[in-house]
Design brief:
Strand content: 15-25%
Largest sheet: 8 strands, mixed
Shape: globular
Oligomer: single chain
Helix content: 25-40%
Radius of gyration: 22 Å
Length: 289
């Protein structure tokens, strides 16, 4: 059995990472491991240690998040250094944190889970621009810092977990990370599967004022330019020129002012749900085409 410490940054609201974290904890628990948490940037004025649902939680306040030596000594008070101790990082930039763990826990293992790349947002997901930035540098400081942080981090941790095959390929071919250090574990949900009857689907559509003959398209995820949401809206604007019998449902936290990016011709065709509970999300999945 390993003593696993999930290292994260304080979240003010529920997000996709919250779901990932909950599912991960359940998987690790069922595999017989002990779960603990270390939270950087916590909404507290001092270093705190407490238990939440039998999980040991170490809270690092934002004011101390960059006092790494002090944090290192604090962690050593509560965490044993040994091969059965595993730290799992879930945020970037991460090198300073990894370096801290390497210095104070030389016998322990460090696993880094890639959820996103900062440069991906800055470069709008353009891989060719990213390769150019690696070879020749980049004027955008955020991009350059992100690339350098990744280069240093990926090569000193014990394992890098990729949630997508594209990320795996990128680390292997562009970042040149050793293949035996990489792991591809697709993101997903462990949940019970259920099927709604045709009558139930009609009721759900009626509740949402969607007719039986309308074709429903469903988008679930981050509502951002980098995820292609504006291109998708443009595609539906073109679709509307030929067909009108459709609805587009968008699920995910809606940025302020997003409505202005929805083409006027399809505004009555787009339903913005924001973040929703899982039960409603499953209903939306069930009625979508």
């Amino acid at each position: 059995m390993s003593e696993v410490y999930l290292i994260e940054v304080y979240e003010k609201q529920v997000s996709g990472f919250t779901t990932y974290k909950n599912e991960l904890c359940q998987c690790l628990f069922e595999a017989g491991h002990k779960i603990n948490k270390i939270v950087f940037g916590a909404s507290t004025d001092e270093l705190l240690f407490r238990y939440e649902d039998n999980v040991k939680v170490l809270l690092i306040p934002a004011v101390l998040s960059y006092h790494f030596e002090l944090i290192g000594y604090y962690l050593r008070l509560y965490i044993s250094d040994g091969p059965s101790t595993v730290f799992m990082l879930n945020f970037s930039p991460s090198y300073d944190t990894v370096k801290l763990l390497k210095e104070f826990f030389q016998k322990s293992k460090i696993v880094y889970v890639i959820h996103d790349f900062i440069w991906l947002t800055e470069l709008n997901g353009n891989i060719e621009s990213f390769k150019l930035a690696i070879n020749e540098g980049c004027e955008k400081q955020n991009v350059q810092r992100s690339i350098e942080d990744g280069m240093k981090t990926f090569h000193i941790v014990d394992k890098v977990v990729c949630l997508s095959s594209d990320t795996y390929k990128l680390l292997e071919e562009v970042y040149s990370v050793e293949k035996d250090k990489l792991a591809y574990i697709p993101n997903g949900l462990k949940d019970s599967f259920y099927i709604l009857s045709a009558a139930d689907k009609i009721k759900i559509r009626a509740k949402l004022h969607i007719t039986e003959d309308e074709i429903v398209f469903l988008y679930v995820g981050r509502v951002s330019k980098q995820k292609g949401i504006l291109d998708m809206l443009g595609a539906f604007e073109k679709l509307h020129e030929r067909f009108s019998n459709f609805r587009l449902i968008i699920v995910g936290s809606i940025p302020t002012g997003f409505h202005q990016y929805i083409p006027y011709s399809i505004r009555n065709k787009v339903l913005l749900f924001g973040a929703v509970e899982r039960e409603l999300l499953y209903e939306l999945y069930s009625i979508s085409n």
